[in-house]
Amino acid sequence: QYSQNLLAANSDYELLLTTEQLGGLPTSVKNAAKQAAKDAGHSGKYLFTLSAPSIFPFLTYSTDRELRKEIYTAYTERCNGGEFDNTEVIRTIISLRARRAQLLGYNSHAEYVLDDVMAKSPKAVYDLLGDLWEPALKSANEEMANMKIIKRRDTKSDEFAAWDWWYYAERLRKQRYNLDEQ
User: If we measure between CA atoms, which residue out of 82, 62, 81 comes closest to residue 72?
Assistant: First the structure.
């Protein structure tokens, strides 16, 4: 049911755009969106959906911050209320996983799934994550600071939101390494 709701929510969302709204998007992304729109009966438009091959190139290249916000918010809020709500489904999954772990002699679902892998226990996972946290946070903060410099140059503001991450990370890759994901 969880997967069916997720698939339905993904299929239900459509961001239909005009040529004027495609700023920054590479030709290959535009062509895919144009074909998707045509296939969905919207000839002359460009269709973006919540599927990974559609949303992530859009978030990476679109110069329109409000459209990035719209599609990102739709992606993160899918199945959170409405027709395809997964709240109760998730509660049921959690309950069943806890019950299974208990029946098999484990204290938690985490202990159950980790028993036959290298980590062996939730504590070992937390220890590893603890060791990684400081260096990863330092690196992420440095990357964010560099992306804010680019954003400030572009917009005179370094206010950053989640839907800005892919776009400015791509700009930083191009600036630093002359690397283009395309």
Answer: 62
pLDDT score of 179: 74
CB of 37 closer than 8 Å to CB of 8? no
Mean pLDDT over each residue of the chain, to the nearest integer = 95
Q: What are phi and psi of 121, to 5 degrees?
A: -150, 155
pLDDT one-digit tens code per residue, 5-25: 999 999 999 999 999 999 999
Q: In this structure, is the dihedral angle defined by the CA atoms of residues 138, 140, 141 and 143, taken in order, positive or negative?
A: positive
Could you tell me where the beta strands, DSSP code E, fall in the chain?
Answer: 15-17, 46-48
CB 78, CB 84: distance < 8 Å: yes
Q: List Cβ neighbours of 23 (8 Å cut-off, separation of 6 or more).
A: 62, 63, 64
Q: Say if residues 163 and 151 touch (Cβ distance below 8 Å).
A: no
* DSSP SS3 for 80: coil
Total count of residues recorded for the chain: 182
Pick from 147, 146, 145: which is nearest to 166 by CA?
147
| Residue recorded with tokens 């964010």 | 144
Residues 6+ apart with CB under 8 A from 75: 50, 55
Query: What is the distance in angstroms between the CA of the first residue and the CA of the last residue of the chain?
Result: 35
Residues 55/61, Cβ–Cβ less than 8 Å: no
Nearest to 182 by CA among 52, 68, 28: 28
